[in-house]
Amino acid sequence: MKYIDEYRDGTLARSIAATIAAEAAIDRRYRFMEFCGGHTHAISRYGLEDLLPANVTMVHGPGCPVCVLPVGRIDDAIRLAMRPEVTLCTYADLLRVPASGGTSLLKAKAAGADIRMITSPLDAVLMAEAEPAREVVFLAIGFETTTPSTALSIDLAHKKRLGNFSVFCNHVLTPPAIRAILDTAHLPPDERVQIDGFIGPAHVSTVIGTEPYRALCAQFAKPVVVAGFEPLDVLQAILMLVRQMNAGHYRVENQYIRAVTATGNRLAQSAMTEVFAMRDTFEWRGLGQLPHSALRLSDAFAAFDAERRFCVVPVAAADNPACECADVLRGLKKPADCKLFGTTCSPEAPMGSCMVSPEGACAAHWTYGRFRDRIPARAAA
Amino acid sequence: MTAPRLRRRKLDIKTGLVDLSHGAGGRASAQLVDDIFRPAFDNALLDLGNDQAAFDVAAGRMVMSTDGHVIWPLFFPGGDIGSLSVHGTINDLAMAGAQPLHLAASYILEEGFPLADLQRIAISMGRAARAAGVAIVTGDTKVVERGKADGLFITTTGIGVVPPGIVISGDRARPGDRVIASGSIGDHGVAVMSRRANLGFETEIVSDSAALNGLVAAMVGAVGAGLRVMRDPTRGGLAATLNEIARQSRCGFHIHESALVVRPDVAAACELLGLDPLNVANEGKLVAIVDPAAADRLLAAMQAHPLGREASIIGTVTEDDQGFVQMTTAFGGDRIVDWLTGEQLPRIC
User: Fold this and answer.
1) pLDDT tens per residue across span A310-337
2) Running DSSP on this structure, what letter comes out for residue B338?
3) Model ipTM value
4) Which domains does chain B have, with CATH numbers?
5) How far apart are CA A241 and CA A239, in angstroms?
6) Are B332 and A14 an interchain contact pair (Cβ–Cβ within 8 Å)?
7) A124: how many CB neighbours lie within 10 A of its CB?
8) How far away is chain A from the Cα of B325, in angstroms, using its nearest Cα?
9) DSSP H/E element including A281
10) What's the CATH architecture for A67-172+265-309?
11) Which of A276, A297, B280, B321 is spaced 20 to 30 Å from B341 by Cα?
């Protein structure tokens, strides 16, 4: 595949890995968080950790929209879908996410709810147009990457004057989440963040640009390198972070220059601003309530807001108290440190947010990397 | 005086639809069999018109298998539900090293299903069976009301005979054995996906749906008892197949990504959809686990057969009480190749 294979070249990878090993100071630890699930996936799928020296380690961040969606929101969506007049449309990743009481959208569908899998929100608009007797609700989820396409679908429904289309909005924003992870100065020393630098989002940054990370860099004195999702992108970004640390810098650098600019995609940004407004606060699974971290439909588009149309009253739902997702997301613990990991919590029956989607830290480690936790059979014998 | 003979009205295959009478066991049912299935399947045992087929069998071990088919869409690039239902059961039989003999076919038809499509599917089944040297010797047809099924479901059942001295089973892999894949992976799943209405691919990726009994006969002929395990990686793909065998044989695997064959268009489609070709279904490929001493001979025999031209040794069986399927990636790192969680894409076979 042109423009893909070039970024998966094993020989080049070994050469970058050798440079990282040569430049990383032996007496120093380099702990980097990749924010995005896409990066987590690349690291796990290509076995990148095997190519890094022992003192350069990766912490898997919360940048997986399915993982950070609180259970209560899925419960709300199921209640919406159970209404006889409603057709709920959403992306396939959300169907299996466990809700309260052992349910999920998939189980609700089996019980008779009209839940349909789509690959684009525009399909939901066309469905509403084709089936005027149904109330078509699009369960929207995602960071800044998917938000513009939701905005465009609402805009299209508005132009078509569709009275039977609405959006149950769960779009969240990246910079407030990074801030929440880094902002731990008020906590006891052993609970403070253990991260020396960030690999910044790939697709999110194509929309918002690199500029929004500048304030975070300055405030918390951590370097950020925005990187693409291919394995060579990730390795190069790690090298750039090592070099910044060695030089004592904390700047925003852009490894993903083939797709990301400083200011991002203005057209996508204006589509978002037109349709959405900031929520005062929003709950993130694993991180708790974060102020100004999510979007709702703006008042001008209130007619398309499923929360208002169906008077959705949020019901809080708690995670398992033994779940260590919050510490895993802050880099304080590794997935295998959690008592639930691989015992009661697995991708088939996830207990915590990090196990929910293949891009979550625990699910990626379980699916691709758990052989590294193996107790050597011979040594034990 | 003789009773007046009822003039038999021809079945209107061109524009006619299946109705409830076609499944009621009366004259309409018989006509469906006479006008559509008998000409398509064309064999003497079926023509006898009994409710079962009776035949002699050779001495030895027999194998039996059954497979239900609910694929949607019914017609896809490289095949249809008919040819798939023949290949599916033949391959399940062949994976025991058997020579398939006879098939039975059972149909659940939805009221309103076009007879023209039914005929097209029956002809495709007959052609696929003849090409594989197998006869469809008995069958059954039921019709359910509109809305109680999705067009057409087909279940096929088959029997076959295993040559003497051959014992092929999922529990026979041993550490050190070689793993051979017969060709490219992921073609069928992506071909079906490309025909789903809401995924408008322009590419014409063709399903690999094929009967593997010819290839298997060549393999058994080449190495005989050196063959330990064979399986066709259908739903769940190569990843599920290797994990199943690891569990049955209480072993692990170490495979090399660079030895896997993935067609560029399949790789591109998987990239776009976020799928791993290792999890995508195949319908004309097999994985063989073989005594290391016989591996090169087996590989040569496979590569000499049209359905095994791209065969390659993809890895080895390891001693592993946790049953990990480990893969060295083309990038140089290691990872697990795990079962797929949940359903990647429903109704692909």
Assistant:
1) 999 878 787 788 888 888 877 788 899 9
2) P
3) 0.80
4) 20-162 (3.30.1330.10), 178-336 (3.90.650.10)
5) 5
6) yes
7) 26
8) 9
9) strand A281-284
10) 3-Layer(aba) Sandwich (3.40)
11) B321
